[in-house]
Amino acid sequence: MSRGADGPDAVDLSRFEGRVLDGRFELRDLIDQGAFGAVFRAEQRLLGIPVRQVAVKLSRRGGMTTETARDQFADALMLAGAMHEMTDSEARAHLVPVYDAGVAMEAGGRAYLAMEFVEGRTLGAEFGSYPSGVPAELLLRWAREICVALRGLHKLVPPLLHRDLKPDNVLVGKYDRKVRVVDFGLAARLVERGYLPGVAGTLAYMAPETSQGDSGPASDLYSVGLLLYEGLTGHHPFDHLVPPADLPDALHGDWLYKAKLACIVPPPSTVNNTVTPELDDIVLRCLKPRPFDRFRSATELLEAMGNAGVLARPTPPARPAGPVRSAAPGSPAEEVAQLQERARGHTASNEHDLAAKCLHEAWDLVGKHPTALRGRQERADLAAGAAEAYQRAGNNFQAGRFRRLRDEALKGGHS
Fold first, then answer.
1. 332-411 has the same fold as 4-116
2. Cα–Cα distance between 267 and 284 in angstroms, integer?
3. Where in 16-97 does DSSP place strands (E)?
4. CA quadruple 23, 24, 30, 32: dihedral positive or negative?
5. DSSP 95
6. Domain 332-411 has CATH 1.10.1060
7. Model confidence, pTM
8. Is the alpha carbon torsion for 343, 43, 41, 87 positive or negative?
């Protein structure tokens, strides 16, 4: 490791908390640090004015130049270029955009990268909250968003493969619960012959053909199948395949390749009773050992999910949060309707605290824009929905408050 210009005590990068890089990025809180460097929650400034919260990755190595920084952040720059080329706006919403990069002389010549700050936790951590398996509707919502991101990447010319898709490389937003696919350190563009040579990725989540040096779009879809299986059942489908203790590490990939070809994976429904036969078929097809037996593209996989009728279909709360009605795009009425729809989705997934938050935001918005709802009954229904969501979330104080607001709305009062 290079000590750079800051000397031997530069090992712990937490000491950079509070510093400002290039006069634009104030490093607020250390999120994590590892062999590469550290990630901070930071504040971006324009002309000295704070404009947004970002995540800043700071290299451990100092004394860098623009050229060496480009090498250090080659993966992120590749993704930034890919997102610029991408016409699939829905796919971009499930990737993390890069905002800026540079070399900070005041930090000992360390390279930094500024990107969207996503407050949340990894899909692996989410799985840990459901030791017996994630409900199928919730997991499929996340899986669909992963596939949407892959659809955008795979449609590029040439396609961009992730090659290391695993639970720790998928983030779930704390508030919006939206998925972002991250960590493209092993991503690469497909060569003209249609597959990418070279072994890359985490062995446990690697497609069989990748372990043999060939990767294509179907390799990423294999990893989606692994994520689905692990999330639905609470365990990896191949966790029982353990190479012999005396086998050299260099031969583990070949051993696992042959073992997977001979392995029969039981359907996830044998463990999780929320899994339908259609979903069983989708997961097992993703896990076919030969790529030509899997789905041909992320688009085809998305279509299969829709045609099988297994995508999440949120069910409304027992007390509706208000009828869905048409509204002008971007209007307060549309914002309220969207918040109500998100609340229904959270309720269907037993995320009652998040449902309550959405309905509370909707209520506050209606307070500022009374015409966003039509009449007393819709206001009463919204308050009733918030009261029930808070009751289910265990917040009796807010539940009682919204019950009173419901009664006031029915009498024609105002909050």
1. no
2. 7
3. 20-21, 25-33, 37-46, 49-59
4. negative
5. B
6. no
7. 0.67
8. positive
φ, ψ dihedrals at 12, nearest 5°: -90, 105
Its sign, for the CA torsion 209, 214, 219, 223, is positive
Distance CA 404, CA 415 (A): 10
Burial (CB < 10 A; 0-12, 13-18, 19+), residue 10, is buried
The domain ranges of the chain are: 4-116, 120-308, 332-411
C-alpha dist (Å) from residue 12 to 4, 37, 208, 271: 13, 9, 39, 44
What is the CATH topology of the domain spanning 4-116?
Answer: Phosphorylase Kinase; domain 1 (3.30.200)
Per-residue pLDDT tens over the stretch 45-96: 998 898 999 999 999 999 999 999 888 888 788 888 888 888 899 999 999 8
Q: Domain 120-308, what architecture?
A: Orthogonal Bundle (1.10)
Q: Is 196 helix (H, G, I), strand (E, B) or coil?
A: strand
- Tens of pLDDT, residue by residue over 146-195, are 999 999 999 988 888 887 888 988 999 888 889 999 876 544 434 443 44
d(C-alpha 61, C-alpha 2), whole Å: 5
Among the listed residues 188, 196, 123, 179, the one whose alpha carbon sits nearest the alpha carbon of residue 153: 188
pLDDT tens digits along 232-284 = 999 888 777 677 788 787 777 677 777 777 778 889 999 888 888 999 999 99
Token pair 């497609």 is found at 207
- Strand 120-122 with 110-116, pairing: unpaired
CB 321 within 8 A of CB 340: yes
Q: b/e map of 112-140 (b: 16 or more CB within 10 Å)? A: bbbbebbebebbeebbeeeeebbbbbbbb
What radius of gyration do the chain's Cα atoms show? 24
Q: What is the 3-state secondary structure (H, E, C) of 109-160?
A: CEEEEEEECCCEEEHHHHHHCCCCCCCHHHHHHHHHHHHHHHHHHHCCCCCE
CA pair distance 24, 334, nearest whole angstrom? 36
Q: How many CA atoms lie within 13 A of 204 on its CB side?
A: 13
